[in-house]
Amino acid sequence: MFVLGIDPGLSRCGYGCVEGRPGGPRAVAIGVLRTDAAAPLHLRLAELQAELRSLLAELQPAVVAVERVFFQVNVRTAMSVGQASGLAMAEAAAAGCDVVQYSPNEVKQAVAGDGAADKGQVQRMVQALLGMAAPPHPADAADAAALALCHLAHAPVRVRVAAAEVRR
Amino acid sequence: MFVLGIDPGLSRCGYGCVEGRPGGPRAVAIGVLRTDAAAPLHLRLAELQAELRSLLAELQPAVVAVERVFFQVNVRTAMSVGQASGLAMAEAAAAGCDVVQYSPNEVKQAVAGDGAADKGQVQRMVQALLGMAAPPHPADAADAAALALCHLAHAPVRVRVAAAEVRR
Asked: pTM of the entire structure?
């Protein structure tokens, strides 16, 4: 099963596609989508939307995990992050994927065992968990891969909870 | 020339399509797109995206005027408004429309002559400017029509500024 993590952003939108396997997770594709900061906003949004659609068509993930954005944090870029997250969720749903959201703290807790881990720790843990030769760069790409790993860590619990609800 | 105003929102996304004519503006289509508040967020975003795409295909506006959102206002719904505005701008750009943004104050100033006009005043002025039998309801639909009217009021100035820049 492929899980695609998305760290939404307009200048840099991180993505990290991870395959969940019995022997441990495997990196499928990790990187960032960029749009030109000098271009008009609506053209940047349309470009990001088209690139997200291509990525989903290419990777065909079963689940897309998007970072839950909080507007208290970083008000200057909050609007464009919100806009990018909306595009990512709409495109993922239109592509027939399950869509889940995790907060930054949940992701850090899942991959680094510490909800207050810094970006370097997350990068090193993603490297270790995926057996990569070097930490993924930039941090947005590592954060996206961490989202996918967080979902794989949570998935067995989600399945057990759903099964318990069915038995009730 | 058709101008489509969009007042972005997830529960209610207002739209107002107005034709600019020498004899005065004419209402083409005014209403709201709604999504089910009980449905999961990603499905609501995908539904709104599909409805915006249909609306753009049907009306074929030359210009789409989207309300500029500020996150200081109404933090509770700020995220979904940002997400909806991102979808509206991306779809409009993908459909080949010009996209412009106006702040709520600019819109109120343009249609009611007062940047602090209340919703009722905006509804009555939209009714008067478009020669409608009754004020448009709900307020989101009136706000969207007011965005389109605001653009028509600003458009001659924008053309003169562009012409002056060409002559320089």
From this structure: 0.90
